[in-house]
Amino acid sequence: MKLVKTTEAVGQVLCHDITQIIPGVKKDAVFRKGHIITEEDIPVLLSVGKDMIYIWENDETMLHENDAAEILYRMTAGENMHPSEVKEGKIEVIADSDGLLKVDRERLKKVNSFGELMIAARHGNTVVKKGDKLAGTRIIPLVIKKEKMEKASEICSDVPILKILPFTMKKAAVITTGNEVFYGRIKDGFTPVIEKKINEFGVEMVFHETFNDDDKKITKGCLDAVNTGVDIIFCTGGMSVDPDDKTPLAIKNTGADIISYGSPVLPGAMFLLSYYKKDDRIIPICGLPGCAMYNKRTIFDLVLPRLLANDMITSDELALLGEGGFCLNCDVCTFPNCGFGKGW
Fold this sequence. Notes:
26% of the residues lie in helices and 28% in strands.
């Protein structure tokens, strides 16, 4: 790459895209990489502020920004993704399927710490749809040393930074608890909320039972649901510390591994997550606090995509939700396009 006066560049090969900005009209490349500069191009180049311009000189030790972006794309994209057209040295990663986006944050940090190159991605653990943009890649200068790109590539030699997990769970059970519902004193307003939210992920409620505040009956209901072959179980009600709230005890008595009873999320502090193991199956059993019934967004909305993608959640990960786990209950809810739940 060589810097020359624009007025002396006729016949030379342009080594990068030249962007023209017309406010309110367009921002696009007026000339593309590889364009051979003509006499008629000189006034246009000068009009976009290019008194000096880079022309291409062959150097086997260097990579052009477009070629480097291709390498960064391969480091970033996993299965069920495709690249955009290379434009001004940038490639975007686009989803080919719905699912849960996972980001390898450590590898992403290492790549972006190299200098002279970058990968910008969406938050991990978020729901993406086919056609969504997931990330963008480019180098900062116009050219970069091949050796540097080769070293950066080693970070992602075995696995890319991004992957999409499909939503694999299809059959759910809901165990409704509470004397007030069981004896018909109030209408069950919880189950319809759960059913609506899981239906958005293609999950069907195939098992539903209602019990009074009897922990033995609730335990048996959970185990009956497991034996019908459901993929996931949601228990509603009875999640506080009141003496007659027996759902946490009932879930524990199923023999499930309790991951956490309580989460640093508001709304959702009384959430319980456990995993029940039967043969080669692992069935999440969740205790949902009452806030999931009447608040727009809660801990339920944060964990649901991960559970339905069969993405195991640890207690350490739940602890990370303390940062970003405070919902502002905005008058107009924009979730997931907000900070709620972006801490893990």
